[in-house]
Amino acid sequence: MKKKSRKERLGRLADYFAKNRAVAKAEGKIPEFEWSSLKYNKDEIDYLKNRYEGDTLSSRSSTDWLTLLTNSHQTYKKVKSTFEDLGIDVDEFVNVENASSLLSNPLISKSVFQKIEEEYGIPAEQAEAWSKKHGHKIEDWATFVEERMQR
């Protein structure tokens, strides 16, 4: 997908979020966005949708939304490729039970935690502690990384 085309699609989503926050606050609902118009992989759409669709409290400009959504999308893709670089089938990692099973293997989990530290500067011990308390899906990892990077 061309970079300009991707930015235009995310721009439409950013405009949608910016314009519909006032409606959401006033009416208590958000008009539907045509998510398939983004032409991303289903897991990428699900990540953005789950991460931001219910966010009715945030009042941001279209430009702010575009930055936020672009950064989130890039973080998700980077985290996904981090796991793929380790030879982990990310389609299996979408499922919590499979992810938990994979991370129960000490060699795999150590590799994951070290890779998270190398790629994002999050200490391996912190990633390990987080993984014991929270979900293990790629979506959860992307949110974890994104939140730590914003600190």
Structure description:
The chain is mainly alpha-helical. Helix content is 72%, strand content 0%. The protein has helices spanning 3-27, 42-52, 62-85, 90-93, 96-103, 106-120, 124-133, 138-149.
Features:
single chain; 151 residues
Radius of gyration: 17 Å
Name the overall outline: elongated
Average pLDDT metric: 78
Estimated share of beta-strand residues: under 5%
User: Quick one: how many beta strands?
Assistant: 0
Quick rundown:
72% of the residues lie in helices and 0% in strands. The protein has helices at 3-27, 42-52, 62-85, 90-93, 96-103, 106-120, 124-133, 138-149.
Helices and strands in order, then pairings?
Elements: H1 3-27, H2 42-52, H3 62-85, H4 90-93, H5 96-103, H6 106-120, H7 124-133, H8 138-149
